[in-house]
Amino acid sequence: MKKFFVSSILVQIVCVMTFAQTVYSQLDLNTLLEMSSNGDACATDAIGDCYYNGSGGAKIDHDVAITYYKKALPGLEALAREGNAEAMNRLAGAYTFEDVYGTVDYNKAFNLYMKAAKLGHAAAQNNLGTCYQFGNGTTVDYNEAFIWYLKSAEQGYAGAMLSLGYMYDSGQGLENNMQKAIEWYEKAAATGNRTAISNLGYIYWSGKGVPVDYEKSRSYYEQLAERGDGEALNYVGFCYYDGLGVEQDYSMAYKYYVKSANAGYALGQYNLGNCYQYGKGIEKDYKKAFEWYQKAANQGDKYGQVGVGDCYRYGMGAPSNGYQAYVWYQKAADQGYAVAINRVGELFRDGFGVHQNKNKAREFFQRAATMGNKEAQTNLNNLH
Q: Of 49 and 23, which is predicted with more confidence?
């Protein structure tokens, strides 16, 4: 089986308005707790951010986060009435969060974002741009979105820089311009913005509007890998595995895949299983291969599901079990993965784990073949 790199390229984190990323987001949990105890409602809300995002020294706990968000509401409402822009921005965020406010009211959020934005609040300006971009509480207006993102970005707000990069990248409301997209992504990346760094890495890896440059791509992903980012660790491992922008080194690939897998990244877990199955950078160990494929599969990873299916089919690190092979192949097939669809066809052809049924086998082979799977086409040609 082949190892894979998949990137969540060009994910614009704006579908839900950001609550924080203001001066409060730069404070640690203990400082915020002290401020909250002195009646600072914005600090109380920011504590919710810490628990929701796992920042400021807090561990992710959404239930605790929601408790703090709700606790902050009365104070935020009072401050907002007094014209406090920070409170307006945070209260608007609460209006978009059903678990906090009890319903979603984009109209209220939009109005508060507008008031805070006009007061010069950078995060509110960014969030107002989001409202215009996606039509939350107002009609879609890309020109207004661009104007407010630009105001926010000029104040150094990374989320707005990212959004401007995305608009130029996608041509949403603007003429597609990869050079300007890269410029804005680089500005956001300079602040440490994770998505901007990832987008730049992928742009140079894929050659989107620029020459392919694996070495430059890897340099961006290594920045994230140093933070323990599972996806980035997997990508750097992929570079070493295939020798992309660096000398091929299976041992280094294995080391990065271990870190990625231990960070909980499903594709890194699959790739680590692949190393154990084929002895790349480590001695072959089918049992460990099965264990890591299982971890990936349990997260819904289609590659891991096929890996588990193969282990059961061929008795690698697990007892040979045709039915279990079928179960796991089918999970991946349900995701439209051609390799898995072909594998299910093979089980029906051979009657392994399922009743032999060559008509069903043909159906699966045809499905996979139309998706470009060459092995399925060969199976279809040889089916009698």
A: 49
Burial 253-286 (b: 16+ CB within 10 A, else e): bbbbbbbbbebebbbbbbbbbbbbbeebbbeebb
Question: What is d(CA 278, CA 295) in angstroms, rounded to the nearest whole number?
Answer: 18
Rounded to the nearest 10°, the torsion over CA 31, 33, 38, 42 is 90
pLDDT, tens digit (0-9, with 9 covering 90-100), for 116-163: 999 999 999 999 999 999 999 999 999 999 999 999 999 999 999 999
pLDDT surpassing 60 at residue 234? yes
CA atoms of 297 and 291, how far apart (whole Å): 10
CA distance 291 to 347: 23
SS3 content of the chain, % helix, strand, coil (to 5): 70, 0, 30
Q: How far apart are CA 328 and CA 23, in angstroms?
A: 48
Residue 117's Cβ-count burial label (10 Å; 0-12, 13-18, 19+) is buried
Axis crossing angle, helix 29-37 with helix 41-53, rounded to the nearest 10: 150
What does the alpha-carbon distance between residue 99 and residue 64 come to, in Å, rounded to a whole number? 12
81-102 pLDDT per residue, tens: 999 999 999 999 999 999 999 9
Residue 17, pLDDT score? 40
The answer to whether residue 39 scores a pLDDT higher than 70 is: yes
Determine the Cα–Cα distance for residues 70 and 156; give it in Å rounded to an integer: 30
State the CB neighbour count (10 A cutoff) for residue 103. 9
Our measurement of the distance from residue 138's CA atom to the centroid of its chain's CA atoms, rounded to an integer in Å, reads 28
State the amino acid at position 186 in one-letter form.
E
